[in-house]
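Batch job 17 of 40 flagged for manual review because the log was empty.
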Amino acid sequence: MDRRDFTRLAALSILARVLAGAAPSHAAAPVTAETAERHHQEAMLRYAELTGGPKLSIGMLVYPGMFLQDLVGPLSMFEALMNRDIHLLWKNLDPVGNDGSGGPALIPVKPTTTFSQCPTQLDVLFVPGGVPGSFTMMEDSTVLDFLARAAPNARFVTSVCTGSLILGAAGLLDGYRATSHWATRDVLAELGAIPTPGRIVTDRNRITGGGVTAGLDFGLALVAQLRNRSYAEAIQLYLEYDPDPGFNAGSPEKAPPIVTAFLNDMFAGMREAAFATARRARKRASRDF
């Protein structure tokens, strides 16, 4: 390399460093939470053919002893909807616990709307499951009366996991195909329903989900019914719901025999309680009718 080449290379190196550190004369305005939210809303409007539609009214029962994931799974999907009101329904506005053992709630849930304040017309009436909380609700006349009043004016009457037992106890699944957690699915027959395997079972305007995590699939399926498939797929991508658990034991048919035997043994007493509670609920409903 001669002197001229060296000088040229040095000059280019200095120029590159200057350009790299130079700030543009028209620097963009800093991004704030407000500008990000405005861009978000503008994008939603640009895709109104996906996100638009009449205002939705969604009522979700909450109660002591419910299984939190039964509520949170569908709620995550519903919260991603535009133009909706979501009501967490209970007898009063006191926080309800979700510890089925009767201990203090790790994550208490605060209702937003009392039964008496619930809108007359609901697009979705939803009931989560939870043991033993759902058994208590199956014999709670205030809860059952509310569900029986709200259901006739609801577009969809729905549940996840053992929430279907509560719907059945309220007389809302008579003659309908329905599902529940796999350990309690056959209990539905005691309540006038037709037990049907499936992660989501739809019969007319009754939509029931299987156990716990089925609430995620249930929520997406309902979003597609309430709006459209593309919106449901957008929410799936937004939440990065792309499950890959690394195991294949999510149903009795797939789980290893020792795992199924363990769960069946563990659930034996719960199943007895479920059947006994269902029979009492059915008998009470027949007498009241």
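Reviewer: the log was empty due to a logging misconfiguration, but the result itself is present. DSSP finds ten helices and nine strands in the chain. Unflagging and moving on to job 18.
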